[in-house]
Design a protein that fits this description.
Isopropylmalate Dehydrogenase; 12 strands; 10-stranded mixed β-sheet; alpha/beta; binds nicotinamide-adenine-dinucleotide; single chain; NAD binding; binds 3-isopropylmalic acid; 3-isopropylmalate dehydrogenase; two-stranded antiparallel ribbon; IsoCit/isopropylmalate_DH_CS; 372 residues; 42% helix; binds magnesium ion
Length: 372
């Protein structure tokens, strides 16, 4: 298969982890006889520095022309510490999502059995956890009217949703639940927010077309408790933009590190793959960032294009790194291998073998289905 892939490293550890992912994709191409081409694009603080814009037109054009986008991370301390900055790295990512209509953000939280003892939570609580969050990515508080009074003493961010925005991701989440364990949990704040009540009405109506899927609703504050107390109860979680952002990072605690959590953002045409974590500026250039979240995003990319054997080969190589304890120091109580070393090990262990499937059957990470 020929795939044109845009590579947007961004800031902080973004380029460092992405380098490992490109290495792995090159190994997949060589092993399985594909032709992947990679083109770099500027985004985030790095792009502001060079062009004044966090998403230069050239980058947007590159992404539109590509089959898929691999994204690192954006964000820098100089902006995090300056609430007055009008041009910000994050605007680059948000604009990219909007321009490419990437309305669904899919983030699987799957505990690898071998890492279960390394989670900060008790092993018997988290072992077997396997849920996926469908986060609406283009609406809500993120994308509606923002106001700041002239004297700077009053600010507001409007939270707005339309039925159409809710139903397109709801269908996607119901279909995913139908393929999985047939349970969908809508997370909202319907006891307080009008937007959440709209979500409940729309999702409940859509649920009637998916009778095999059990739908239940949970308030976001309770969901925050349940994810830590009993994460195995979840199969597919569907939620709005802001709640999804927060719940995802919380899900990473179950896994043991945010450095292990991948994501796919998909829409009507384009698809972007990125780790859930940010630019972790404190680690920039130190060769300590965990590349696994980014490499697992590569597995999601391959899965998206129906390259299941290839995706399994990537996951199998990652599992091998876990078995040999070749992991970065964020994986609790583990060795302290560097980003590059872990990336090299995974790339070198990408092989075309029937054993890949056996390893993944045990872990049921991917399964033979596309993610949308
Ligand atoms: N998608 C994105 O690009 C994205 C996502 C979140 C935050 N951000 C941006 O990143 C910057 C830093 O934000 P933050 O500190 O809140 O979040 P962050 O995800 O960058 O880091 C939070 C903590 O997670 C851990 N961590 C993150 N990535 C890791 C990795 N690969 N390996 C090991 N540990 C890892 C570290 O302990 C770190 O202190 C901000 O500018 C923010 O806006 C960008
Ligand atoms: C950087 C920021 C705009 C982004 C978000 O809030 O969506 C990030 O936190 C994420 O989870 O991808
Ligand atoms: Mg986030």
């Amino acid at each position: 298969m020929h795939l044109k892939i845009a590579v947007l490293g961004g800031d902080g550890i973004g380029p460092e982890v992405l380098k490992q992912s490109v290495k792995c994709l090159q190994a997949v191409a060589e092993t399985f006889g594909h032709n992947f081409t990679f083109t770099d694009g500027l985004v985030g603080a790095a792009a502001i520095k060079k062009t004044g814009s966090p998403l230069p037109d050239a980058t947007l054009e590159l992404c539109k022309k590509s089959d898929a986008i691999l994204f690192g991370a954006i964000g820098a301390l100089e902006y995090d510490n300056d609430p007055n900055a009008r041009v910000r790295p994050e605007q680059g990512l948000l604009k990219l999502r909007k321009e490419l209509d990437l309305f669904a953000n899919i983030r699987p939280v799957k505990v690898f059995p071998i890492l279960a003892p390394k989670s900060p939570l008790k092993e018997h609580i988290i072992k077997g956890t396997d849920f996926v969050i469908y986060r609406e990515l283009l609406g809500g508080i993120y994308f509606n009217e923002k106001k700041l009074s002239e004297d700077g003493t009053k600010a507001s961010d409007l939270c707005e949703y339309t039925e159409g925005e809710i139903s397109r991701i709801a269908h996607m989440a119901f279909k995913a639940a139908k393929r999985r364990r047939k349970k969908l949990t809508l997370v909202d704040k319907a006891n307080v927010l009008e937007t959440s009540r709209l979500w409940r009405r729309v999702v409940t109506n859509i649920g009637e077309s998916y009778p095999e899927v059990e739908l239940n609703c949970l308030f976001i504050d309770n969901a925050a408790i349940q994810i830590i107390l009993d994460p195995r109860q979840f199969d597919v979680i569907l939620t709005e933009n802001m709640f999804g952002d927060i719940l995802n990072d919380q899900g990473s605690v179950v896994l043991g590190s945010i450095g292990l959590l991948p994501s796919a953002s998909v829409g009507t045409k384009n698809a972007m793959f990125e780790p859930v974590h940010g630019s972790y500026p404190q680690a920039k250039g130190k060769n300590i960032a965990n590349p696994v979240a980014s490499i697992l995003s590569v597995a999601m990319l391959l899965q998206h294009f129906g390259l299941f054997e290839e995706a399994n080969a990537v996951v199998a190589a990652i599992l091998k790194s876990f078995q040999k304890n070749i992991v970065t120091s964020d994986v609790m109580g583990s060795s302290k291998y560097g980003t590059n070393y872990v990336g090299d090990f995974i790339a070198e262990n990408i092989v075309d073998s029937d054993d890949n499937l056996t390893m993944n059957d045990e872990n049921i990470w991917l399964g033979k289905s596309t993610i949308i």
